[in-house]
Design a protein that fits this description.
By secondary structure, the protein is mostly helical. The protein has 10 helices and 7 strands. It has 2 domains: about 120 residues, 2-Layer Sandwich (Potassium Channel Kv1.1, Chain A); about 100 residues, no CATH class. The strands form 3 sheets. Strands 2-1-3 form a 3-stranded mixed beta sheet. Strand 5 and strand 6 form a beta hairpin. Helix 1 crosses helix 2, helix 7 crosses helix 9 and helix 9 packs antiparallel against helix 10. It is elongated. This is BTB domain-containing protein. It comes from Suillus luteus UH-Slu-Lm8-n1.
Length: about 230
Amino acid sequence: MPPVPKHHEQFYFTFVTFLVEDCLFRVPRDTLESQSDIFRDLFLLPVEADKAEGYSDSNPIVLEGILKDEFQSLMKVLYPMPFTRLPPSPDGLPTTLEEWTAILKLSKMWSFTRVQEFAIQQMEPMLAAKPLDKVALAQDYGVTEWLVPALLQLARREEPIGLEDVRKLGLDTALKLADVRESAQSTMPTWAGRYYMNPIDRSVDMPIITATGPRGFTSCDFTSRIRQVFNLQE
């Protein structure tokens, strides 16, 4: 009698089917298990063989509240070219900020730690000239390392705080940013760490200067004030 065949440890894939909006995705389960504790625990749950969700198109795992395009973006990273049938990009990865934002969102939601770190790296150059979006995304997805550099860019900006800032950042953050910007002074005289309207008349106490230089002046350093106002640790 010939020996019973064994499954190869690396190249025997179990597939799982998801329903996202009106679209079925069928992908190797092993990658999801190895990258995410949440999916690993999900697949460990005991189920009856004939009722197991995800093992057929007729009984998929339904992902509520997730957009098809968002899920597709994540799949591009987990299962890159040449394994997919998507139009290839030069390196087989997503190319737009919108796609990477979706990847950051889902990787954080489902604890794909390495994918989340990779998404942050990929988005960094895309957001270099978009400090407003960078702060908004940092707040939404907990990317604390983006906050100080992006807030510093906004504090140095010549344009005042406007409705677009409030819409993207929220009123509380916009007001804190205005506080930081108002700490900049370039011409007022100083005395004992405070500045006065008249260098001779020191009877009128004014707010402490925490940054020097006019708005729009790129060497004006608001870093300490940003950390103080937003309660950010070094």
